[in-house]
Write a structure and sequence with these properties.
The chain is mainly alpha-helical. The chain has two domains: 1-46; 50-158, no CATH class. The chain is 63% helix and 3% strand. The protein has four helices and two strands. A two-stranded antiparallel sheet has the order 1-2. It is elongated, with a radius of gyration of 25 Å.
């Protein structure tokens, strides 16, 4: 009877050790997630909001954006080697629309066109409310070079 009792105590000790390891891993994982959210919300609450940015496009660049968008076909990709930057502009514009209209639910895999990661944005989730002002500034900083490159490409094409 004593050997069964000792085996049972050893099993309880092993079970307690396993539970401690699982609890530690669980804690570390969620501590990282909570710290990441805290950093993002702290950063976004201290961030200066720019009233001139709307849906990731600065108002001073709106005419350039519209002029480029007029060159984009209604459907499908832009063909040709002379329009690579315009195609990148089209893809980035579609991603930006999805960020602000759908919370990046449809085009998350295409976010790399802006050289951003999902964790760079403050999107709707079960942990926190999104900070759209913060998102507008982050997206604008990533999108501005794309607009400039596309405009430069189109100007070179017309010469």
């Amino acid at each position: 009877m004593t050997s069964i009792k000792k085996d049972h105590q050893k099993q309880l000790s092993v079970d307690a050790d396993i539970k401690a390891v699982i609890d530690t891993a669980f804690f570390i994982r969620y501590k990282y997630r909570i710290n990441h959210i805290y950093r993002r919300t702290k950063m976004s609450s201290e961030h200066n909001t720019d009233e001139n940015i709307s849906w990731g496009i600065h108002k001073s660049y709106k005419k350039l954006y519209d002029a480029l968008w007029d060159k984009v076909p209604a459907m499908g990709e832009i063909k040709g080697n002379n329009n690579k930057k315009l195609e990148k502009f089209r893809r980035a514009s579609n991603v930006i629309y999805d960020i602000f209209n759908n919370g990046l639910m449809n085009r998350a895999r295409e976010l790399r066109v802006l050289k951003l990661k999902v964790d760079d944005l403050s999107l709707p989730n079960s942990y926190c409310e999104p900070n759209w002002d913060y998102n507008e500034e982050i997206v604008w900083e990533a999108f501005r070079p794309i607009i400039i490159e596309a405009v430069t490409e189109q100007l070179r094409r017309t010469k």
